[in-house]
Amino acid sequence: MRARVRDTTIYFDVDGMGLVPDGDRMVDRPVLFILHGGPGADHSYLKLRMGPLTDSAQLVYLDHRGAGRSERGDASEWTLANHAADVDALRQYLGLEQIVLFGTSYGGFVSQQFALDFPESLAGLILCSTAPSFRILADTQRLVEEQGTPQQQEICRKLWEEGLQTEEALHEYFVTMGPIYSQDFDEESFGVGWRRTIWNVEQLDNWFAGERRSFDFTDRLAEITCPTLVMSGAHDWICTPEQGRIMSERIPRAHHKVFANSGHSVGQDEPEAFLAAMRGFLAGDCSAGC
To answer: DSSP secondary-structure letter at 147?
Structure first.
């Protein structure tokens, strides 16, 4: 489905019931907006990981402007502020008062922007494998230099310094870096997901050359007042657990869960624990999984 909001067209998809039978009454489930990473990817890779949550929430997937099946528009419009504003415009388009927002990796950056810009629209916030500022790059560079193979070091430098520029180079990047993205990386399974995904490499390169060097929510995190779950993979080299700790300590109502056997892809590495934490948060009971 597509919604014309603000000055663009956003692709979205809805999974699960929002109003469910419960004995002799009907009960509203929370609506969970799901923001993908990248930037420049689409939402498709999250459907298998998040789909089981239809027993706890109505799921709304979307592609950020410039990505996937959404309108691409001008590259100058691919900003955190615009992506966050598009999410709130879609919320209004669907007639929703409040949403629970899940953002992973880049989607977590957008989610923090949303929480600061549209606090009244949020019933809850889930920040997964993400970080509050550009300073994560220093940790990432250090870990790649200390632990990466020469091939991994070389392709990361290409991404950071000049951009990848082509889908072929992006594919090479993920195959090379896959074993440290996920503790459970399988190249054949990755290939299936790769073929499902619509990529915009220009958006990824623009991010690393632009806002990636300057975004910083650190000093404003205390303004986020809704219940928040922060999830980190213990072996995440992109958004380290230390970044999760910073967010959870500065957001007043936040809880930090570290997944001991996960890298950057928590939902892939520890699916059962990931879903348990999500369901616990959606039910308002962190003791059930958080």
So the answer is: H
Please tell me the total count of domains within the chain. 1
* Sequence-distant (≥ 6) Cβ neighbours of residue 37 within 8 angstroms: 104, 105, 106, 107, 108, 129
Q: How far is 207 from 160, CA to CA, in rounded Å?
A: 10
What counts of helices (H) and strands (E) characterise the chain?
A: 11, 10
Provide the greatest CA pair distance for the chain.
63
> pTM for the complete prediction?
0.96
Inside any domain, residue 188: no
Q: Which amino acid is at 68?
A: G
pLDDT digits (tens, 9 = 90+) for 104-148: 999 999 999 999 999 999 999 999 999 999 999 999 999 999 999
d(CA 42, CA 139): 26
The residue assigned the tokens 């995440």 is 236
8 A C-beta contact, residue 258 and residue 241: yes
Q: Determine, yes or no, domain membership for 183.
A: no
DSSP string, 24-93: TEEEEPPEEEEE--TTT--SGGGHHHHGGGGGT-EEEEEPPTTSTTS----GGG--HHHHHHHHHHHHHH
